[in-house]
């Protein structure tokens, strides 16, 4: 897949939460795919083109259909995100829809928001904090979680591809930033 350069990272009003232009940071990420539940999807993470390249193939066989790239737990993410009005993903996509998942330290729930990419276009996808929805471990709605994400509690970020988007995928993410109110 030929892509343009990744979108530029934080301007003066943004706070970098995860700088994926750093090969050492990318090396700390892992994948978890649907084979853990019997599916046949595959994915990999690489450092190239100035960011984390998350790619693979989604298979719907055996009730499969998801792949994820997960960053390490880091309480500094929440400290840097305190007061954020939105989170911004700087990426070159493939036209598919991805999901940004943010985890909270010590909680069984997380918060998610989808963003549709443009094929081969480097841009920043702004995800309002108010648009994140609480979910449980299987990404189902979590009624026991607070309805609104508190950015100061974020300790982990992950990317997912799901929603029956069968076939090959690739996204290059250069940064995940917080945009203050």
Give a structural overview.
- The chain contains two helices and twelve strands; from the N terminus they run βαββββαβββββββ.
- With 181 residues, it is mainly beta.
- Strands 1, 3, 4, 6, 9 and 12 form a six-stranded antiparallel beta sheet that branches. Strands 2-5-11-7-8-10 form a six-stranded antiparallel beta sheet.
- It is globular, with a radius of gyration of 15 Å.
- It starts with 14 loop residues before the first strand and ends with a strand.
- The relative contact order is 0.29.
- Mean pLDDT is 92; it is low at 1-10.
Brief summary:
With 181 residues, the protein is mainly beta. The protein is built from 2 helices and 12 strands.
Q: Runs with pLDDT <50, length 5+?
A: 1-10
Oligomer: single chain
Shape: globular
Helix content: under 10%
How many DSSP E strands?
Answer: 12
Query: How large, in whole angstroms, is the Cα Rg?
Result: 15 Å
Q: What percent strand?
A: over 45%
Mean pLDDT score, rounded? Answer: 92
Main beta sheet strand tally, sense and closure: 6 strands, antiparallel
What structural class is derived from the secondary structure elements? mainly beta
Summed up, the helix count is 2
Q: What's the helix-strand series? A: EHEEEEHEEEEEEE
Distance between the termini: 36 Å
